[in-house]
Structure formats: structure tokens, C-alpha cells
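agent> fetching stored inputs for the zinc ion docking request
agent> found them:
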Amino acid sequence: MSFVETAVDQDQTEVAEIRIDPITNHRSLFSKKSFRGNEVIIKFLAKNVLPAPTYLTVQISDSVHIELFPECLGCTNHSCEPNCFFDTTRMEFISLRPILEGEELTFFYPSAEWDMDRAFQCHCGSEQCLGLIKGARYLSEDRIGYYRFTDFIHQKLQAVKS
Ligand SMILES: [Zn+2]
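agent> prediction call returned; pasting C-alpha cells
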């Protein structure tokens, strides 16, 4: 199976690329152009639909988890101070603030995951770092106010509150 290493928008402009760490083999996504805040980086599609989360999926509902296309978007790393967001209603990958060409693109995993398949210890280095990342259901009230969430996660958070 071929792996799409770059994301190309409708104008055939390369917007992002995978970089692979030669030592750890870890894949990360980097921007290939600059973006304003709240700009569509690229529209995405579901390559596969799965009933349960994996480390590559983004959550659409309780029982729908999608693998992303372009596939390289699946390599977007988590940050507790993210610069991107997956809008799963509009199916758009969005910049949360201005991004420079060559910056790593990151998103806050719990913004699109209620209860993650694999919790992990974050080392993003941001002052806001939460440490253990497990999913939106485990976030405190002040953290919930700090982040943007998908419509699905937002609804779940509202339901728990009421
Ligand atoms: Zn962190």
C-alpha cells in the first residue's frame, strides 16, 4: 500500500509534508506554506471507517472513527498548545493561529477523542502541558474552556455537565 507523503489542496499546492525522524522513525507533519489563523489548511475525507478508535483515527461519533485522507494527516502529532484543529463537521483541517511555512502542525488529541485508545505521557514542552493525555472525558472544567472541540465532543461535554 502506498503512503501519501504530502497533502495537496484543490489548487494542487502542497500544503503539508511528512518528515521522518531518522533515529526513531517517528513521523511528523510540517507545513509547506504559511497560513493565517482560522484558515482551511486542507479538506479531508474518510479513507476508512472503523467502529473503534486506533492511534490513527479521528472520532466522528460514539461508533464511527475515521482514518484520514490524505493519509499524511494521520501523522499530525498531539500538542497541549496546538496550532491546528480537525473540524469533523465540515471535514476541514483548520489553523488555530497564524502558522509559518516549515512549522510542525499539531492538534490537541482530546479535541476530537472522547476516550482514547492509548493514553500517553505528553512531552510537548508547552507551559500548558497536561502530562497524561487520555481523552476529552478526563479534562477539568478550566481545560475544557481553553480548547476548541469538535461538535461531537462538545455535545458529549455538554451532556456530562447537565
Ligand atoms: Zn503536552
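agent> quick read of the result: Helices lie at 141-146, 151-161.
agent> awaiting further instructions
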